Amino acid sequence: xxxxxxxxxxxxxxxxxxxxxxxxxxxxxxxxxxxxxxxxxxxxxxxxxxxxxxxxxxxxxxxxxxxxxxxxxxxxxxxxxxxxxxxxxxxxxxxxxxxxxxxxxxxxxxxxxxxxxxxxxxxxxxxxxxxxxxxxxxxxxxxxxxxxxxxxxxxxxxxxxxxxxxxxxxxxxxxxxxxxxxxxxxxxxxxxxxxxxxxxxxxxxxxxxxxxxxxxxxxxxxxxxxxxxxxxxxxxxxxxxxxxxxxxxxxxxxxxxxxxxxxxxxxxxxxxxxxxxxxxxxxxxxxxxxxxxxxxxxxxxxxxxxxxxxxxxxxxxxxxxxxxxxxxxxxxxxxxxxxxxxxxxxxxxxx
Length: 351
What we know:
This protein is an alpha+beta fold. It folds into two domains: about 1-115 and about 305-350, 3-Layer(aba) Sandwich (Rossmann fold), CATH 3.40.50; about 130-300, Up-down Bundle (Glutathione S-transferase Yfyf (Class Pi), Chain A, domain 2), CATH 1.20.1050.90. The protein has helices at about 35-50, 105-110, 125, 130-145, 150-170, 180-215, 230-240, 245-250, 275-280, 280-300, and strands at about 1-10, 15-20, 30, 70-75, 80-90, 95-100, 100, 115-120, 220-225, 260-270, 270, 310-315, 325, 335-340, 345-350.
């Protein structure tokens, strides 16, 4: 798959930008700060995700003075060309069309187009709180199988209702409705646990390979579920029984995938440190998170995910020598192209 062209209108600082990308290979975007390089990548990613990794609302994406932003792009896939058009409204619901037909569910779009994005906003995968790592695992789950995009949201709905029940309960003992919510928590939570385990098993080998290429030693990535994956629903139920008194006292759910973790560490001479952000020295921290992110394109090439895909990566300016910040993509299985911008002109340099 390849993205043939992308067009932005009133998207952040892009009044009107169209980029033709008619050749295979890796693209590098270079230019001064504030020219909109990251915004361009973000818009390309929006064609797949219908969301931004930097903001949760649509309003910041719309150029000042405009009521809506527009992003259009055409992908060439093994099954033919796919035209994706998105109207991003400052207020109200966005509109999405694929080949001129309205799309209402994200999974329908993801069956046609697949994009992987990596940038500075991925730093919390390593240094942030566990919630960011859980979100990363769920992202890989959807990359492997788009129809699983509702697993986590279904679990979180049950979790919120169960937590409300625990918080509002005033009597002695457990609420009478708790057992029913336990079963729903077990059912939806087990599905999330199994999917995350599969996702981490898929991304760990390519992440280690990418990390080893830049550091000289392996990266060990492990799923750390709150409920062991081998225990299944029976183990989940047993953990709930064990923590029942604690949950009633603290009035919140203490068992389930909302307390999962992702452990990663460098492995030297067979010894593995537990946490990536603690085990890696500062000069190895960025290669570590880049390596984890580089696993995503490889995961995206798994047979079960064999659909259109496009890979976007941003490397922070200090990684690249020179006066101008550079957005750089490096992948061992792809060629290389470079797209540069400056004050007066845009040019493409093929390698």
